[in-house]
Each structure stands twice: as structure tokens, then as C-alpha cells.
Amino acid sequence: MRRLFENAFPNTLDTTIVTGGSDARPDTFVLTGDIPAMWLRDSTSQVWPYLSSVTKDPELDRLVRGIIHRQSDQILLDPYANAFLPNEEPGEWAGDETDMRPGVHERKWEPDSISSFFRLSAAYWRIAGSTRPFDDQWRSAFSVALGTLRTEQRRDRQTPYRFHRPNGDPTDFVADNGRGLPTRPNGMVHGAFRPSDDASQLSLNVPVNLALAASLEAASHVAAAIGASGEAAEALTLAGEIRSGVAADGVAGETERIWAYEIDGLGNRVMMDDANVPSLLSLPYLGACAADNPVYRATRRWILSNRNPWWFEGSAARGIGSPHTGPSRVWPIAVAMQGLTATSADERRDCAKMLATTHAGTYLAHESFDPSHPATFTRPWFAWANSLVGEFLEKAALEGLLE
Questions:
Q1: Contact 392, 351 (CB under 8 A)
Q2: How far apart are CA 296 and CA 277, in angstroms?
Q3: DSSP 8-class letter at 126
């Protein structure tokens, strides 16, 4: 377990960071791992465990400020894109039928991308107590992000976004000419893709929207701190509308009230959870609800059971997987998140033991693995998983659970 932590926790710093820029405006590009691109979601998650040290380490502070600057520039380049390239050379998905631009790796509209930009900015401001990275470009990016979210509430049922991937995998297909299936707008933000980068079945993702509301609330304080009072107020208003939409349409069940994974506002629901974060499991970790919230507690029991179609059990492990990797694959991200959101020491210890015995001798976290045969795994270099596993093991160790 110690060796797994020593390899996983610094994996992002050791293998994925490219720094540049100036002292006044540093620039940090963060590879996701074995894909040479930077995801807004992944890059935030990759450095999240390091944030508590920015006040003690000037180099780390510069690195994180550089990520905030880079994310600001990426939002201004294209607020609908989820992943970006280090330069303007054509990428792997340049042939996608959408408004592709130089510097964009993939243009899958996932509202959690913007949410991750808000989340990292708010956490840095809260921990460092500094407004240094929040320059004119950041304020412009914040405003563009808010405008994009407003558009994707689709109050008028319109969106400029389209996506089609010629000869793509079925998980990349977005219905209705690349817009997504019809909905009844309710204040929630529409998305075309899940945090897994797979196309949504229904356009209103409940955990993504709850996480987005939390990040808007947190980032509103940053906007207020730099004098952007109008944007701060707008962020809070938007967060309230999102939460109202989830409360109205996102809860299912009569005897036991639980959150759905995706809805359309017309009464249709997808009942599941996905390993990728934001997930229903991760909501307290993301500040979207309290760990003792009754709906969350009921939802957590449901998704950590075989009632969730993406829950898998084997002789070596059990946990949540994803349609992204198919049946009988557990994700270390989900095992770590179960541990991070557990209120029982025994459950947290059990999750740590599963992670320590399923790395297949690599002493690194992977994307997914067969819960009966952990040596069968996907993505040997996946920095987000390593950061989250490292974060969980550090927390468990500090709580004295691993002695």
C-alpha cells in the first residue's frame, strides 16, 4: 500500500506537467497521461491533492496558477471543448463535424469541463488567499462560461452546438442531428457527453448539474473578490436555477427517494451511476450535498449494489464501472471515491485494501480492471486515477486506518 501511494500520488507531477509562460503569467499544460492532450476535468482532478501545499511551495503555487491561466485561455478558445492540444497543430479528431478550432483536441460538450474550471479557481483562492491568477483573461473566461451555461439551459430549446463523428464508435453518437434528444427545459444545463466522454442518453445529467451548482457557488466568491459583482450574482442565480431543476425532476422513487443519473424533464430517467466524476457517488466530495443528505444516503446504497447496472463484483474486488469500458470492469477511481465518501472506517479500510491488491504488480492505478483478474486492465498511464487513489490513501493514512 505504501509503494502504491509513493508511485500514484506524485504521478501527475512526475509525468504530465509542461511549464512555461512568465513569472507574471505562468502557463502549465497538463497531459492526461497516455493521451497527449489536456482535459479541463482531468487537469483539475490531477492536481487537486496538491492544492493544500501551494502556500508552502512557491514552485507548486506557480504551477497551479499556470493551470488556471491555461484553463482560462482554453475556455476563451472554445467553451464547448473538453480537451485541448499544447499547440495549434491538427489533432486526432480534427475531422469531427462540429466547430473544430486549432488547439482543440476534442469538442465534446460536457458541462463538467466548465465546472472543473470553476472548481480549481475557487479552491486555489480559498487555500492561497490570493487573486493573482484571476486576471482580465480569467474574468473574460468566467463571463464566457456563464454565457455558455445560460445558452445550454436551452430555455428557448435552441443551441448552437452540434457534434458528429464520421465512422465513430456508437458511444460517440449524439442523437437529433448532434443536439441530443428533446427535453423539457427546467433550469438544468444540457450536455451532449458524460464525464466518461461517452454520449449522454438523456441530456440533463443530475450529478454533473449538482456538481456544477456547487462549483458556481464556490467560484462566485472569486468573482466577488476581484470586483466582478455582476458575474458573482449571476453565478449564484444560475446555481439556484440548476438546483431547483434537479429538485423538480431529478429524484425518482416513491418509497425510497434517490437521484437519477440522467433525465430529460419529460419524465424519462436513466437509473445508474458511472465511475467517472462527477458521479452520484462523488456528490459530497464535490461539495454538492452533505454526506448525511437522506437522498444521497439512499442513492449511495442503491448505486453500491447490483441494482446499479454498472456495479460489478469478482473474486478480487467489487465496485462501479462504466459503459466506457464495458461490462465486468471496475474503476479504481470509483473504489477511491467510495472510500473518500464513506462514513465508516471499515468501508474506507476495505476500499484501500482493494486498491492495494488489484494494481497487477504495477503499483499504479489504471482506468479499469477485471474484478476477478486484475492483471487484465485498461490504460497503464492514467494520471487522474493515480491522483485520486493517492489522495484517498493519504487521507486514510492520516486517519490511522492503514496501520
A1: yes
A2: 15
A3: H
For residue 300 the three cell numbers come to 449511495
- The answer to whether the beta carbons of residues 207 and 259 sit under 8 Å apart is yes
pLDDT at 403 over 80: no
User: Virtual CA dihedral for 153, 158, 164, 170, nearest 10 degrees?
Assistant: 60
Q: For residue 159, what pLDDT is reported?
A: 97
Q: Which three cell numbers stand for residue 251?
A: 429524484
Direct distance between the N- and C-terminal alpha carbons of the chain, in angstroms, rounded to an integer: 11
Closest by CA to 323, choosing from 197, 182, 167, 163, is 197
Q: Which domains does the chain have, with CATH numbers?
A: 7-310 (1.50.10.10)
For 160-164, which contacts have Cβ atoms below 8 Å and span 24 or more sequence positions? 161/80, 161/98, 161/109, 161/192, 162/97, 162/98, 162/99, 163/96, 163/97, 163/98, 163/107, 163/108, 163/109, 163/192, 163/193, 164/96, 164/97, 164/98
Separation of alpha carbons 150 and 189, rounded Å: 8
Cα(19)–Cα(337) distance, integer angstroms: 29
User: 332-341 and 345-356 helices cross at what angle (nearest 10)?
Assistant: 160
pLDDT digit string, tens, across residues 66-79: 999 999 999 999 99
From the CB of residue 100, how many other CB atoms can be counted at a distance below 10 Å? 18
Residue 402 confidence (pLDDT): 81
At CA 60, angle to CA 56 and CA 64, rounded to 5?
120
Residue 330, φ and ψ in degrees, nearest 5: -95, 145
Helix (H) or strand (E) holding 341: helix 332-341
Q: Which residues of 310-337 are buried (b: 16+ CB within 10 A; e: fewer)?
A: bbbebebbbbbbbbbbeebbbbbbbbbb
Dihedral sign, Cα of residue 394, residue 397, residue 401, residue 403: positive
Element spanning 38, H or E:
strand 38-39
Coil, strand or helix: which one is 99?
coil
Residue 95 identity:
G
